[in-house]
Amino acid sequence: MLELDGLRIEQGGFRLRADLVVESGARVAVLGPSGGGKSTLLGALAGFVALSAGQIRWQGVRIDTLPPAARPLSILFQDNNLLPHLSAFDNVALGLSPALRLDRAQRASVQAALERVGLGAQAAQRPAQLSGGQMSRAALARVLLRARPLLLLDEPFAALGPALKADMLDLVGELAAEQGVTVLMVSHDPADARRLCPLTLLVAEGQAHQPAPTEELLAAPPAALAAYLGTPRPTTPQPRS
Question: What is the pTM of this model?
Answer without folding.
Answer: 0.87
